[in-house]
Amino acid sequence: MTTIWHNPRCSKSRQTLALLEENGVQAKIRVYLKERPTEAELRETLAKLGVTAAQIVRTGEKTFKDLELKNADDDTLIAAMVSNPILIERPIVIKGDKAVVGRPPENVLSLL
């Protein structure tokens, strides 16, 4: 099963979903801003991505600045992303024990 953490308002997220569909992938769409990941899900996804929280946090978001997260550790960033999923880089595509960030959208081809 392939899952995409999707934001329909994001062009890269829409492009990534279209690329999956063009390649015959019937992905489960999770609108993560509404269906927020839990801390455990986020930690599991970070492990599948092979990255730290700092590598997928959206530092340009107003919320990032408002929460003064610039020098935050991973635990603090994870808590902030769970509470404010807008801080999570998007889209994230998960398949089995692997995941990729769809920036650029072609990154997802490595999962197919």
TrEMBL record:
Record EC number: 1.20.4.1
Reactions mediated catalytically: [glutaredoxin]-dithiol + arsenate + glutathione + H(+) = glutathionyl-S-S-[glutaredoxin] + arsenite + H2O
Keyword entries, A-Z: Oxidoreductase
Alphabetical list of InterPro entries matching this protein: Arsenate_reductase, Arsenate_reductase-like, Thioredoxin-like_sf
Entry GO MF terms: arsenate reductase (glutaredoxin) activity
EC category: oxidoreductase
Pfam families: ArsC
Entry annotated with the keyword Glycoprotein: no
Family from the record: Belongs to the ArsC family.
NCBIfam families: arsC
Protein name: Arsenate reductase
Organism field: Cognatiyoonia sediminum
